């Protein structure tokens, strides 16, 4: 009975916090909206009224719950208020630690959430604090910069695969006779894996220094979030002129009060989401970045796009730099893959061309963020609709964009082209026969151009190319345009990479063929390394000759790209992630992906598991030191009939 009572208390406590959580989230959104809405806009007074109502409600709640909040938070006569809080990763002596940081009106507090016992109030352990008057983002001359330990991509993918598997299991067990305890065990496993992923993924440094010489480093997943923290700290520093020093008792009282004052009550895991909340979107999002207005001076401006997946944000695309203008008109289209995504973020940067000068604060990019904003990807608004135009207003700058979402079950399928003379959508054997070549001309041309000027391009193959440029090249190759090589020389290298990916994606049958797809998926799952190598090489050399020679040609190129990883940031694993689904994704009739739109989580996670297998197959061949050529097939002892 005691255990049941404890669980009920914990559940009741969580339920009581949910309305407050929702109002708090709304208040944060209102803050952002007001920040980016001009005072002259007709919505500005309405937003102010809504914010006042929300803040009044939260203040009354805090007064009722914590009548002694002020004495705990500050000395008499002081007015310390919580401005912002968030869960972040701190780098401590080379190890990643999950922290909850609290920005107050006069100080920044870093705390650790203690392990919770069911039904008990969460507790924090204070790690350090810095008065805002002593906080700086610029390191002292003697300050050293510790290296950031990178978690291997293979481990990250393994975590994602486990998360997808557990999510799929939970989805299947909902509504069955399985006991509550069994479901709770699965949720606990999911929470552990998601927490590990959130701890492992962020790699963008946010360095904070105390004027007395002590330095700290947080790892953030996106430039948007990092800039947000810097901006709000700097804004608060303008109002704070007095230093503060807390005794151990005062620090303990302040840390204890954080439990009731915090805005973020849970680590941002999907397991903590309410059932009524959207699981996010799975599919592709086409985004056209049209233009920007409101600039007060001419700048070299470009935009970057970020989306969230598995609880953290990553950069997905960027426009070209529009040189020295107050009204840039990019009109560039990008296709972004979504995996449980809920938000699209846009950042406007001023490009710096001084490569010898590093940013004093983070030691990396000198490009300056001029404005940033985000829109929520609402499934109800985006599902089954055409292009939707919207304006993102931020810091007086307005950026016009259009978005169109295509769910995975409605995404374009592999199909044959009705034109026999083209190359896109035409069987690779037909193209090589017509051209009297072993490798299609389009593959050779694209790879040669990328090797000529794209091997050192940061994010080559990962960063999206402009959709209109890709379509222009596609039409030129399909028409057998003799000037295509000249056109490629004038195109952005990411557009050429995008054209190559599109060619493989639109093949009527994948390069690894529909017939052998399940065999490759089974072979990569073998645990015995000798049996796996024999099986995988046997299967590879069973491909039709045009497919095999084209793959080997591409494989050599991808290895050369990875040799420049220190410059282009594209490891073998990153390349496998990009090309695995492109080369292996089977035709619709052979796909194992469910198409039931009423189960978005299950559909998304099943897709994720299948994609992971496709990535692993390509990665296996990329990591093999040597692959026997077709001519040596009969001589190799690896190619016996026994597997």
How would you explain this protein's 3D organization?
The protein is of the alpha+beta class and 643 residues long. It folds into 4 domains: 1-65; 78-151 and 201-267, Pleckstrin-homology domain (PH domain)/Phosphotyrosine-binding domain (PTB) (PH-domain like); 281-410, C2 domain (Immunoglobulin-like, Sandwich), CATH 2.60.40; 428-632, Phosphatidylinositol 3-kinase, Chain A (Orthogonal Bundle), CATH 1.10.555.10. Helix content is 42%, strand content 21%. It contains 19 helices and 16 strands. The protein has helices at residues 2-36, 44-65, 69-73, 153-173, 180-200, 223-237, 248-261, 379-382, 428-435, 441-453, 467-478, 484-490, 493-505, 514-523, 529-540, 545-563, 565-568, 572-584, 600-623; strands at residues 82-92, 95-104, 107-113, 124-131, 135-136, 204-210, 215-220, 281-293, 299-309, 312-318, 322-325, 329-341, 343-350, 368-376, 388-394, 397-407. The chain has a 7-stranded antiparallel β-sheet, with helices on both faces. Strands 9, 10, 11, 13 and 14 form a 5-stranded antiparallel β-sheet that branches. A hairpin with a 2-residue loop joins β9 (299-309) and β10. α1 (2-36) packs antiparallel against α2 (44-65), α4 packs antiparallel against α19 (600-623) and α10 (441-453) packs antiparallel against α13. The model is unreliable at 1-10, 63-73, 590-603 and 632-643 (pLDDT under 50).
């Amino acid at each position: 009975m005691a255990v049941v009572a404890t669980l009920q208390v914990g559940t009741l406590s969580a339920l009581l916090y949910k309305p407050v959580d929702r109002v708090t989230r709304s208040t944060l959104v209102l803050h952002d909206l007001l920040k980016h809405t001009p005072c002259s806009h007709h919505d500005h007074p309405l937003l102010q009224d809504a914010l006042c109502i929300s803040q009044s409600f939260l203040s009354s709640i805090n007064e009722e719950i914590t009548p002694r909040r002020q004495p705990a938070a500050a000395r008499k006569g002081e007015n310390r208020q919580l401005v912002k809080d968030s869960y972040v990763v701190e780098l401590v002596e080379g190890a990643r630690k999950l922290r909850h940081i609290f920005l107050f009106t006069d100080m920044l507090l870093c705390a650790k959430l203690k392990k919770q016992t069911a039904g008990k109030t969460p507790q924090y352990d204070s790690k350090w604090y810095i008065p805002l008057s002593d906080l700086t983002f610029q390191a002292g001359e003697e300050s050293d910069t510790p290296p950031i330990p990178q978690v291997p991509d293979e481990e990250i993918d393994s975590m994602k695969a486990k998360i997808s598997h557990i999510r799929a299991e939970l989805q299947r067990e909902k509504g069955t006779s399985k006991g509550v305890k069994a479901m709770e065990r699965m949720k606990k496993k999911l929470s552990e894996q998601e927490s590990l992923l959130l701890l492992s993924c962020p790699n963008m440094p946010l360095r904070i220094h105390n004027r007395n010489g002590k330095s700290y480093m947080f790892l953030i997943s996106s430039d948007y979030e990092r800039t947000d923290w810097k901006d709000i700290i700097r804004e608060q520093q303008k109002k704070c002129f007095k230093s503060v020093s807390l005794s151990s008792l005062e620090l303990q009282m302040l840390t204890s009060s954080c439990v009731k004052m915090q805005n973020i009550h849970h680590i941002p895991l999907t397991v903590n989401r309410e059932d009524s909340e959207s699981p996010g979107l799975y599919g592709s999002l086409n985004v056209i970045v049209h233009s920007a207005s409101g600039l007060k001076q001419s700048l070299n401006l470009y935009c970057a796009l970020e989306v969230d997946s598995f609880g953290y944000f990553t950069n997905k695309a960027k426009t070209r730099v529009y040189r020295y203008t107050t009204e840039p008109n990019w009109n560039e289209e990008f296709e972004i893959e979504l995996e449980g995504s809920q938000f699209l973020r846009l950042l406007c940067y001023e490009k710096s061309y001084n490569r010898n000068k590093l940013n004093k604060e983070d030691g990396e990019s000198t490009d300056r963020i001029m404005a940033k904003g985000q829109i929520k990807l609402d499934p109800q608004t985006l599902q089954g609709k055409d292009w939707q135009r919207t304006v993102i207003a931020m810091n007086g700058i307005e950026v016009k964009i259009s978005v169109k979402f295509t769910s995975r079950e409605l995404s374009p399928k592999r199909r044959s082209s009705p034109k026999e003379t083209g190359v896109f959508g035409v069987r690779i054997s037909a193209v090589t026969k017509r051209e009297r070549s072993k490798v299609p001309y389009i593959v050779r041309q694209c790879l040669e151009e990328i090797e000529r000027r794209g091997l050192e391009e940061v994010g080559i193959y990962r960063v999206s190319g402009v959709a209109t440029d890709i379509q222009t090249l596609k039409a030129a190759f399909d028409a057998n345009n003799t000037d295509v090589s000249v056109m490629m020389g004038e195109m952005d290298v990411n557009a050429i990479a995008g054209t190559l990916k599109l060619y493989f994606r639109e093949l009527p049958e994948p390069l690894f063929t529909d017939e052998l797809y399940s065999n490759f998926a089974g072979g990569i799952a073998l645990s015995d390394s000798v049996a796996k190598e024999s099986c995988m090489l046997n299967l590879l050399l069973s491909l039709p000759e045009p497919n095999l020679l084209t793959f080997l040609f591409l494989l050599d190129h991808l290895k050369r790209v990875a040799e420049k990883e220190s410059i282009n940031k594209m490891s073998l694993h990153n390349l496998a992630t990009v090309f695995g689904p492109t080369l292996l994704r089977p035709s619709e009739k052979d796909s194992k992906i469910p198409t039931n739109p009423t189960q978005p989580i299950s559909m998304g996670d099943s897709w994720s598991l299948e994609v992971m297998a496709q990535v692993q197959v390509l990665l296996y061949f990329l990591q093999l030191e040597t692959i026997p050529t077709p001519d040596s097939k009969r001589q190799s002892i690896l190619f016996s009939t026994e597997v």
